[in-house]
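Pasting as-is:
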Amino acid sequence: MSSHPITSAGDWARHLLELLEVPAALSASPTESAPIADWASSGAVPITGTPDQPLLPTGAGATAARGALLALDAIAGPTGIQGHHLLAERAAITRWQAQAPWSLGGHCRAVRARDAWFALSLARDSDLDLLPALTLDPSAVGWQQVHAWACTLSAADTVARCRLLGLPAGVIGETAATSLFTLQSDGAPRSRPLAGLRVVDLSSLWAGPLCANLLAHVGARVIRVESVQRPDGGRRGIPEFDDLLHAGQRSIAFAPDGLSLLHRVVDSADIVITAARPRGLASLGLDPMQFLSSRPHGVWVQLSAHGSTGEEANWIGFGDDVAMSAGLVRWIDGVPVPVADALADPLAGMHAAVAAAALATRGGAHLLDLSLGQIAAATVLPQPQADPQMVQGHWTIDTEFGTRPVSAPRARTCSQQARPFGADTAAVLAELGV
């Protein structure tokens, strides 16, 4: 269960290690770690609210992120990465400005239904194409028609219709924290080093790629796998961010008639990362339980928006709307607004990396099921009472350790570009004797 309170990064790291049955101890507890202080130094405060009035994000996400990387350090050795700084990396690269009530990327916001608020993302062209079907208005082209439609229905009914059509939506605060992840394990443990293990990353965008990126930092060899019909949307978005997440990884692409090649690559993996819904995996002929039953050691990381079983397995969700449905919002004049940047994505990616590293080094076969919604919900706290104040031209905030400056977003240095789409397909397949 994830009911353990997040009071400091060291405390959260120790909780993660205990959950994962890792005997390693932290090398050192961080100084000045508590929810407000960690947000202040994370870079996420200036991208929450508006440029004229940044707001302290809700919850303990920065502390959980900082603790997750401390746990990874304990498992695999020092990474030199501060987890809470990763929450605002994309913002540091894009220089996006806070723009409440919109999300930082401008694609998600809260919508008022008859009885409550819900979060909706319209990030894809296909989402906008579905608006006439959603609103039953053939002329619907944007948010104005969405608001007019939603105010006549309950939030539960609006979200149900969004999900029926495959639109990312969730009632604000509907996701309750239950467990950080679920785990099915088999086989005998055998201690193994992470260095040299092969990670096959079938995910896209942010959470899964960040998991793979962090595993690469601790010695794993990552292969980025994409479909020729559906390349990772990260390639079309922000090239510098795509480089940051994927530099140093090999890239292969498979065609619909090349599933046998995909299967050979997956079968060669020590760790597989996926973020597809069950029917998406089935369409590729991939079965995590079959993968695990065929080997004594292996980890299958299954990321989802709201869960991988039951009706939740079919729900679409992105980092902003999932975080909002977990209750990670601030309120401005009675309107719930997103906090940080797609917060559920980096939080899930970091926690997935910690769990995958722990399980891979333990040995045995493991199916790790982790949802963005559950990770986000685990960090929820009551609405904060402190917000930044401008003092002599600089934003400061009263933290648990006194007044501290509000840090700007920052990103890790990346000196390489991500490999071109499919650039290493032939080389990888040659290695496998295909």
